[in-house]
Design brief:
about 40% helix, single chain, 3-stranded antiparallel β-sheet, 14 helices, alpha/beta
Amino acid sequence: MRKVALPEEILIDVFGHYDENLKAIEKDLGVRVSARGTEVTVQGDPDKEALAAHLIDQLVTVVRGGYALKKGDVEIAARLLRDNRAAVLQEFFASGRLRATNGRYVTPKSLNQRQYLDAIRDNDLVFAIGPAGTGKTYLAVAAAVGHLSEKKVERIILCRPAVEAGEKLGFLPGDMAEKVDPYFRPLYDALYHLLDRDRANAQMERGAIEVAPLAFMRGRTLNNSFVILDEAQNTTSEQMKMFLTRLGNNSKAVITGDVTQVDLPPGRTSGLIEAQTVVAAVSGIRFLFFDESDVVRHPLVQSIIKAYEAYRNGHRPRKAEPGKPGRTARDSSRSGAEPRERG
């Protein structure tokens, strides 16, 4: 059992409305948290007790520094400290937010995401490589919208390889815009979340935001632009070189992709994989690598990514018994055994 004393003047700010922050700590860290007066008591596994007490201490420092905790901040803070006990929450929350538009801010949810936004700010060309759900595309679009809102660039250009998973555009119905639209839906989703749909569409109509297949970049010089190449694992070596040489004056480019999901035909080299060797030593280029700990989608996504990673490394899971998904034969042989809770 651990006890943490809090200054009376910031109790409400740390506890949250109806103690919602304390409840979040209980849920995320698997401890029991109770408050009496200005003292918080934490009970549970010793390591989790220590982590929860450390989290509360740091939240006190964050609030004393003038930051107002918002819904979801405690979950982010718990995640950060779980991944890195040495993380400094005050530094993270004080300068980690990205102002995407006048009324909207985007807060990174892991240290890697924070470093990603810092890298975009400080470098003209950034590669973000990692699994699905790690915020690579969304944060890149948020940074682009922020640059456009602050008039640091004149336009945003969003592009992707338009042929994936063996599909050919010629066999898809509709004109060119209708053919490529499904490939760009994740980019549209990010735009519509950061800007309202009408405003985003208005920006696209006047050319301030352009969405185009990668092939349309050939021969262009992209000046005063924030350019995002998404799903870059499906570029060929030639396409990647073409894209990298489009960058013009006062422009930034962010290239995102997941090298475990290459849909190119057998024998074709992924431009994203090759670029990690070819341009890794070029000054002004930054590579960021995400892993399953950065996944911010449904909690199952993180477990799924881990399962596939283990499978690729030769670890074969035991098959679940029919009618008992998630239970292995060994698990069910233990009379009355319950699945163990993951720490």
